[in-house]
Each structure stands twice: as C-alpha cells, then as structure tokens.
C-alpha cells in the first residue's frame, strides 16, 4: 500500500484528519472529561504544568540554539539577546506574555534588518 495506490484527490485529507486530528481530539476529550474533577492544587496537575512548561522551554531553546530557515541567518547573540530582552520586559512591564513576545520580536526584527 502506497500513496500512489489511492488515486482519489481526497485521500490525503482523510489521512491528515485521521492521523493528525483524531489523536489530538482524544486527548482533548480526556482532558475535558477529567479536568473538571481535578483540583488545581493536586500533584497531578502540578506535574502536567511542569511537563508543559518544560516542553515550551525546550522548543524555545531549540529555536535559539539550533534555528532553521531565516532565523538561522541571524547571530546567536541576537537570538539570545532578543529572548533575554523579551523576558526582562515580561518581568518588569506587568508580567504580560504579549509584552514579552512583542519586545523580543521587535528586537529580533530590528537586528535582522540592520
């Protein structure tokens, strides 16, 4: 069985739906089903938050240290500096994520244009 064995135009879309969306929706359903019963102070939810935070930190570290595409053309100092400036802006300007993201992106874009 190969991709060429199915000549219908809609087959790739069905595959994407089944292989991509369906497993995601299962976990979302489980989260909604169980989420209402879990206390916000429980150890299970603390572990889930820690894992989610570490995954986000890992993705950010990979983007900074091992970028691809247009980001790879920038220097590591610019990427680290933009991330640091965004984090400091987040801390000192009201702990709002959008402010940290905008400041970090502005510095990165300014550095790439210069």
Automatic annotation (TrEMBL):
It comes from Phyllobacterium ifriqiyense. It comes from the Bacteria. InterPro entries: Brnchd-chn_aa_trnsp_AzlD (IPR008407), Profilin_CS (IPR027310). Pfam families: AzlD. This is Branched-subunit amino acid transport protein. Keywords: Membrane, Transmembrane, Transmembrane helix. The chain crosses the membrane at residues 12-34, 46-64, 76-92.
